[in-house]
Design brief:
alpha/beta, two-stranded antiparallel sheet, binds uracil, 6 helices, Rossmann fold, seven-stranded parallel sheet
């Protein structure tokens, strides 16, 4: 499977705090941001570097800098917004593309009701953010949309993934790496990830 589960102790600790039954909205939101920051660190580990000479304190010094790779962060509405600031902390000049999807009750497929992509997608790494990878339908639809608009380099950052969703994404888009804090057990009949976090959007926005 094209999934990287980040086992770093801080990632696992923050995920454990998120799983608590009575976690407050404020705490859930803060932890989501912190976790997104740590997962983005992992997702950007292979950004290309280039050597340049700069004037250092004791004269010219050769340094490594990220090689002009442009980025776009792609939150999937609504819950993806909760991860946005954490990712932007690491890549503050990244441009933001936004996707909103709703389920068509006849076809049961996710359909876009909002899409606003930045330009030059063919030159950018797209980091899709959505806290929960459940059935995978929304993530596959978002990847389809990005590819249709020319994007060739795509990763997904999620907090918790279900095997069912990972399989759907892997089957449709084997080139897309998923970075997650956990690969959980399964989906229940209502489509919730078990043990999961419950409804992450409700917990981030306080709409429970
Ligand atoms: N969306 C959520 O917020 N939680 C789940 O468990 C599945 C989808």
């Amino acid at each position: 499977m094209q999934i990287t589960v980040v086992k770093h102790p801080l990632v696992q600790h923050k995920l454990a705090l998120l799983r608590a039954e009575n976690v407050s909205t404020n705490k859930f939101r803060l932890l989501t941001e912190e976790l997104a920051r740590l997962l983005a660190y992992e997702a950007t580990r292979d950004l290309p570097l280039e050597s340049t000479m700069i004037a250092g304190w004791c004269g010219p010094v050769e340094v490594q800098q990220v090689k002009g790779k442009k980025l776009t962060v792609v939150p999937i509405l609504r819950a993806g917004i909760g991860m946005l600031n954490g990712v932007l902390d690491l890549v503050p000049s990244a441009k933001i593309s936004v996707v909103g999807l709703a389920r068509n009750e006849e076809t049961l497929q996710p359909e876009p009701y909002f899409e606003k992509f930045v330009g030059n997608l063919e030159d950018r790494l797209a980091l899709i953010i959505d806290p929960m990878l459940a059935t995978g339908g929304s993530l596959v639809a978002t990847i389809d949309m990005l590819k249709r608009n020319g994007c060739k380099d795509i990763k997904a950052i999620v907090m918790v993934a279900a095997p069912e969703g990972v399989k759907l994404v892997n089957d449709a888009h084997p080139d897309v790496e998923i970075v997650a804090a956990s690969l959980d057990s399964h989906l229940n009949e209502q489509g919730y990830i078990i043990p999961g976090l419950g409804d992450a959007g409700d917990k981030i926005f306080g709409t429970t």
